[in-house]
Specification:
about 55% helix, single chain, 7 strands, alpha/beta, 10 helices, Spore Coat Polysaccharide Biosynthesis Protein SpsA, Chain A
Amino acid sequence: MKVVVSIPAYNEEETIASVVAGIPRDIAEEVLVVVVDDGSTDNSAKEAAKAGADKVVRHKRNMGLACAFRRGIEEALALNADIIVNIDADGQYVGGEIRQLIQPIQDGEADIVLGSRFAGSIEHMPLTKRMGNMIATKITTFLSGLQVTDAQTGFRAFSREAALRLNILSDYTYTQETIIQAAHAGLLVVEVPITFRRRDGKSRLISNILTYALRSGSTILRTYRDYQPLRTFTIIGGLIFAVGLAFGSRVLLHYLKTGFVSPYIPSAILTAVLLIIGFQVVILALIADMVGSNRRILDEIRYTSRKRRE
């Protein structure tokens, strides 16, 4: 069995060497470490190679964590990995815990394994980040239907089959998107408790908690929209239609009593507009569902094409 450990890195020259050196090499017949240097302006790539990374690939410019993660998956698949592990380059995750992370996949009990910080131990996490993680996890759990405790963890493992099914479209963060995609593809996702260590310095991804919340929130909503278009637009259209009916109820009652709508002409106009828009959004839901069906066909073609190249 071959395990490929992918490490996305952006300006992590102070920690990348210890992360690479900390990857256990006795957890499978062959273990390879791939570092994806996402346009670092420091010596991250040199330090990774010096520490023993088997392959270092570099982006000419910083393209974002999701792009680095996607590149790592592609490189691991090209290396014929049976299991792919993703771990951050900041040293907050313990490389030695990869053994327990991949065990459910080796046992055939999971397709994707998430290392849960909240089910394990956390040395330090700022309150704002902790609350943001919990809220995003609740939203991801609700939208995906998968019961997870840590949807934002950067320490996770994928079977080859699961990696072939993934199609990351975001350019910011991949964490929630992979979970929603996994649910849609019927992949089995489990969690194992892990250790989360204190970080020295500022996070390269979450430099501003509000920006992170807005961008990751938009990624969650777009991913859900893409995979559940009928439900998404039906809910939106239904809500607009319901508001229109609420405004129109008093107009209708007044008309039934008096035969006139003159005192409520603005409400009658607003009701008509809302009902028309609500109806149009419901029609849009049907069109979006047809587009979604085409997406599912394209996903299957992409998966089949990947399998044939093996």
